[in-house]
């Protein structure tokens, strides 16, 4: 087999790719994704959709790699920019200056509110999170950090220590001491901990992996006040919420609260080249610290020449098209539509939450996450439940989506929920029994059970020669 | 959004003033002191370029990333096509690109290191390795050697000897640092609580420091008898830099986990990886998606890396690195003899060579003098008195001569 990606794949080729992935990366990942019908091989990525190379089915991309494709997938302006940049640049020499690096950093700072004027270029969200926490610790000469339950900031050592779900941490202990986890939106808990030992409070304005929990205005203004009183650095993680996702360029704009440090990544380079950044206020003690320690956090793959050319083009595209206004408009319609679905299914749906085009539906039981992903996939909707809250299905379509696409999506989600109800008829009464519910919620049980169902289904489909129905191209 | 950015084309001096404002004055001053106050552009092959000074032989290659030269034409050509074939992909999904690259890496790396977890920074890959050994062995302790440099992330920084890291408070606990090359210390430290021993087999940023070959075999044996794992970071010594595909091939000791760096794309795409044994992969089979990296295994990056691997296989640059490195080392040893009062020592392997000078200040002044003599070089990050030479692995006799000539001029000017 050649190293070029196949436009289409037959089941034999797919099996070979699965075999390679299982052998060299993880069989567990293959089986886990297959159980929720998320084992799709993407091709023909275009705007808000892609095609499965095996089935030919077209899917709405409701995950967008956790919000990486804000400018739409396969955006020709961004792709052409990268192609043309290859005539001039590679990653560039780490540590040296170039026109793309300086130009992008300036452009980014100019788009950040208030005195968020200073930039540290990074490679990824986790790398930027590490940079932000190090900046706060170094500048304040304090050790401790307050973070929130269900928070997700990445998987390297600093960001993992700040993670709000034990599942991701327990097998790797001990992590960094001095990280205090409190409930999201609980200002009193922060007040109790605030003191001279706290370097920073880190949070996402809207928790993504945590299950689309939106910070309240009172909470955010209260955090700002507490930080000012105690000399604590307020850090916002805008990795998923940035670049227009929530209906404003930055989620912080909803609150009128400016953090001392903000970090971002994902959509910063339109899903074609890694990049990331820490942006911090031009205030003491931050500027003095960085002037005294200009290499306190260096990032080899961050702020590369190619990455900065691409990121500049992404910023231009976002600003020229005011893409966040579209996110606000279509996000409102999407959320209203999901609320209608929730009201009609109040026995299994708990709540709809979100800002702009960062929306989640919370079901009443964890196991519904995988079940719903499967039902959605059968309707041509590729959606992933939250890593830190499997009962929440996240919808983060590219924010260039049109109202017509949102209406079509809602129609498909309605059909998926209706299909899911058939599964729930036998499952819901059983799920009321604690032991059975524990079994249903167990990820290993889900993997075995749903893979078995997929095996039977594929066998029957093979015998009957059926094909799947997806989005019309 | 309340500010506006200027749209007029800035001059070079404008860029420097902007860099002082948006990054820091001290950072720009540091570049000025090293003679690196220029805007890098127009680089290609073995050379980088400054608009004012013209072509300059690149002996930095972004920390040994651009092993196949700057903007390798074959990789660029494939990269341009690949942009229209794929993008980043949804990171949780298996993909054809990831699967094919994983197989290629397994074929490229010697021994039974057949499994891959992709990363985007060296530090993240090191953190993943530390997590994997803790998770797999259910033991907490990480033993490392002094003088290491593994990256800026939480675990990596905790293991590194980076000056000033104490500013970040208490880092990852259960890390024991032992003297590099000390077999007795290794025997004392490695025990039933040890998850892994972590080291760069050749410490590039620390005057290319390495131990006797016997040491690595001894540590390997100690790990085996204690049930601990051995992690080698070959971010800088890998992909032919020291005269073999990986430096560990020269040591008679294979690791359980190998960290590889941006040389996998020859500096065209931020990608790193942790390569490990099938035995360790069982952990990820049981705990799928327990370690995630959005940009790790970027589908477009995978296609770029595969084209780079094609070039590595076609050119086999480790052969040239071994031969040219030997010539370069002989010339530099002779040169050091003429500048005995300035040069403390020379160390290295293949085309990874370190020059130790009398002080950190002298090393900074040397980089500035080297730039004036037509060489881009960088100082060491652990041993600040060193200057490291890591040119493209494709340089020929002419470039080797230029390096020697440039070093001679720079030493003369000190």
Quick one: biggest sheet of chain B? Answer: 7 strands, mixed
Overall outline of chain A: globular
Instruction: Give the spatial strand order of the biggest sheet of chain B.
Output: 3-11-10-9-6-4-5
- Give unreliable regions of chain B as ranges: none
CATH architecture of the largest domain in chain B: 3-Layer(aba) Sandwich
Name the chain pair with the biggest interface and residue counts per chain.
A-B, 131 and 126 residues
The CATH class of the largest domain in chain B? Alpha Beta
**How many strand units of chain A?**
17
Strand content of chain B: 15-25%
- For the record, what CATH class of the largest domain in chain A applies? Alpha Beta
Q: Quick recap of the structure?
A:
The complex is a heterodimer of chains A (473) and B (414). Chain A has 473 residues and is of the alpha/beta class.
What does this protein structure show overall?
The complex is a heterodimer of chains A (473) and B (414). Chain A has a seven-stranded mixed β-sheet with strand order 4-12-11-10-7-5-6, with helices on both faces. The two termini of chain A are 28 Å apart. Chain A has helices at 11-35, 64-67, 76-85, 99-110, 125-140, 157-161, 187-193, 217-230, 286-292, 305-321, 323-344, 368-378, 403-431, 434-441, 443-464, and strands spanning 42-46, 49-52, 58-61, 116-122, 144-148, 179-182, 198-203, 206-207, 213-214, 233-237, 261-264, 276-281, 349-355, 358-363, 381-382, 384-386, 389-395. Chain A has 15 helices and 17 strands. The model of chain A has no long low-confidence stretch (mean pLDDT 93). Chain A has two domains: 11-69 and 323-464, Aspartate Aminotransferase, domain 1 (Alpha-Beta Complex), CATH 3.90.1150; 76-321, Aspartate Aminotransferase, domain 2. Chain A is globular. By secondary structure, chain A is of the alpha/beta class. In chain B, 41% of the residues lie in helices and 16% in strands. In chain B, α4 runs antiparallel to α11 (299-315) and α5 packs parallel to α11. Chain B has 414 residues and is an alpha/beta fold. In chain B, strands 3-11-10-9-6-4-5 form a seven-stranded mixed β-sheet, sandwiched between helices. In chain B, strands 12-13-16-15 form a four-stranded antiparallel β-sheet, with helices on one face. A three-stranded mixed β-sheet of chain B has the order 1-2-14. Chain B has helices at 12-22, 25-33, 61-64, 73-82, 96-108, 122-137, 154-159, 183-189, 213-226, 278-286, 299-315, 317-338, 360-372, 397-413; strands at 47-50, 54-58, 115-119, 141-145, 175-178, 194-199, 202-203, 209-210, 229-233, 257-260, 272-276, 343-349, 352-357, 375-376, 378-379, 386-389. In chain B, a hairpin with a 3-residue loop joins β1 and β2 (54-58). Chain B has two domains: 15-71 and 316-413, Alpha-Beta Complex (Aspartate Aminotransferase, domain 1); 86-315, 3-Layer(aba) Sandwich (Aspartate Aminotransferase, domain 2), CATH 3.40.640.10. The mean pLDDT of chain B is 95. Classes of the chains: A alpha/beta (473), B alpha/beta (414). Chains A and B meet through α1, α2, α3, α4 and β4 of A and α1, α2, α3, α4 and α5 of B.
């Amino acid at each position: 087999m050649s190293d070029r990606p196949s436009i289409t794949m037959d089941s034999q080729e797919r099996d070979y790719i699965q075999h390679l992935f299982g052998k060299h990366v993880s069989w567990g990942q293959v089986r886990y994704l297959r159980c929720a019908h998320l084992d799709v091989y993407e091709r023909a990525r275009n705007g808000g959709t892609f095609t499965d190379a095996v089935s030919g089915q077209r899917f709405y991309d409701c995950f967008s790699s956790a919000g990486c494709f804000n400018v739409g997938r396969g955006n020709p302006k961004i792709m052409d920019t990268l192609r043309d940049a290859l005539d001039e640049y590679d990653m560039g020499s780490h540590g040296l200056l170039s026109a793309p690096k300086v130009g992008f950093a300036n452009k980014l700072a100019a788009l950040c509110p208030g005195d968020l004027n200073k930039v540290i270029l990074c490679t990824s969200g986790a790398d930027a999170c590490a940079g932000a926490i190090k900046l706060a610790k170094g500048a304040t000469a304090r050790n401790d950090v307050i973070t929130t339950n269900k928070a997700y900031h990445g998987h390297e050592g600093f960001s993992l220590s700040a993670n709000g779900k034990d599942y991701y941490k327990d097998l790797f202990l001990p992590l960094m001491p001095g990280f205090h986890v409190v409930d999201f939106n609980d200002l009193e808990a922060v007040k109790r901990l605030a003191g001279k030992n706290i370097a920073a409070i880190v949070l996402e304005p809207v928790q993504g992996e945590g299950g689309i929990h939106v910070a309240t205005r009172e909470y955010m203004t209260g955090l700002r006040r507490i930080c000012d009183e105690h000399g604590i650095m307020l850090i916002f993680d805008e990795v998923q919420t940035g670049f227009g996702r929530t209906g404003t360029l930055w989620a912080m704009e909803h609150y009128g609260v400016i953090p001392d440090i903000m970090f971002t990544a994902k959509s910063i380079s339109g899903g074609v080249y890694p990049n990331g950044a820490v942006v911090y206020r031009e205030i003491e003690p931050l500027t003095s610290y960085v002037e005294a320690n200009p290499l306190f956090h260096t990032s080899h793959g961050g702020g590369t020449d190619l990455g900065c050319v691409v990121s500049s083009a992404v910023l231009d595209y976002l600003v020229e098209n005011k893409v966040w206004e579209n996110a606000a408009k279509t996000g409102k319609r999407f959320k209203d539509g999901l609320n209608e679905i929730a009201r009609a299914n109040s026995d299994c749906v708990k709540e709809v939450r979100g800002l702009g085009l960062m929306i989640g539906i919370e079901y009443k039981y964890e196991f519904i996450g995988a079940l719903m992903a499967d039902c959605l996939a059968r309707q041509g909707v590729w959606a992933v439940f939250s890593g830190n809250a499997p009962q929440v299905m996240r919808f983060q379509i590219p924010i260039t989506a049109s109202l017509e696409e949102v209406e079509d999506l809602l129609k498909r989600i309605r059909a998926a929920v209706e299909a899911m109800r058939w599964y729930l008829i036998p499952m819901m009464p059983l799920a009321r029994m604690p032991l059975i519910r524990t079994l249903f919620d167990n990820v290993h049980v889900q993997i075995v059970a749903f893979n078995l169902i997929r095996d039977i289904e594929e066998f029957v489909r093979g015998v009957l020669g059926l094909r799947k129905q997806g989005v019309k191209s | 959004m309340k500010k506006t950015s200027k749209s007029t084309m800035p001059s070079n001096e404008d860029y420097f003033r902007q860099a002082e404002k948006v990054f820091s004055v001290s950072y720009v001053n540091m570049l000025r002191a090293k003679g690196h106050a220029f805007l890098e552009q127009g680089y290609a092959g073995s050379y980088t370029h400054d608009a004012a000074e013209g072509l300059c032989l690149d002996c930095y290659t972004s920390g040994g990333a651009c092993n196949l030269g700057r903007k390798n034409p074959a990789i660029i050509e494939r990269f341009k096509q690949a942009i229209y074939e794929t993008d980043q992909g949804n990171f949780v999904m298996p993909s054809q690109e990831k699967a094919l690259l994983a197989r290629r890496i397994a074929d490229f790396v010697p021994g039974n290191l057949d499994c891959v977890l992709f990363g985007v920074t060296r530090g993240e890959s090191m953190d993943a390795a530390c997590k994997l050994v803790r998770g797999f062995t259910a033991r907490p302790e990480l033993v490392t050697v002094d003088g290491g440099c593994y990256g800026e992330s939480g675990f990596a920084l905790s293991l590194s000897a980076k000056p000033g890291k104490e500013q970040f408070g208490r880092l990852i606990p259960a890390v024991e640092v032992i003297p590099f090359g000390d077999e007795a210390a290794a025997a004392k430290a490695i025990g039933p609580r040890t998850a892994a021993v972590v080291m760069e087999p050749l410490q590039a940023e620390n005057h290319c420091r390495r131990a006797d070959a016997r040491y690595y075999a001894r540590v390997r044996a100690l790990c085996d008898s204690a049930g601990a794992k051995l992690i080698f970071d070959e971010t800088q010594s890998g992909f032919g830099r020291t005269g073999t595909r990986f430096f560990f091939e020269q040591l008679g000791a294979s690791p359980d986990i190998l960290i590889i760096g941006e040389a996998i794309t020859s500096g065209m795409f931020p990608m790193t990886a942790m390569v490990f044994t099938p035995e360790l992969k069982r952990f990820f089979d049981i705990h799928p998606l327990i370690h995630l990296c959005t940009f790790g295994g970027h589908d477009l990056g995978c296609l770029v890396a595969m084209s780079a691997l094609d070039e590595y296989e076609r050119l086999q640059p480790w052969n040239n690195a071994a031969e040219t490195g030997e010539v370069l080392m002989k010339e530099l040893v002779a040169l050091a003899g003429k500048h005995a009062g300035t040069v403390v020592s020379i160390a290295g392997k293949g085309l990874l060579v370190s020059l130790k000078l009398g002080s950190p200040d002298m090393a900074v002044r040397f980089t500035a003098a080297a730039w004036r003599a037509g060489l881009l070089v960088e100082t060491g990050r652990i041993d600040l008195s060193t200057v490291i030479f890591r040119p493209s692995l494709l340089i020929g006799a002419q470039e080797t001569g230029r390096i020697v000539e440039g070093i001679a001029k720079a030493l003369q000017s000190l």
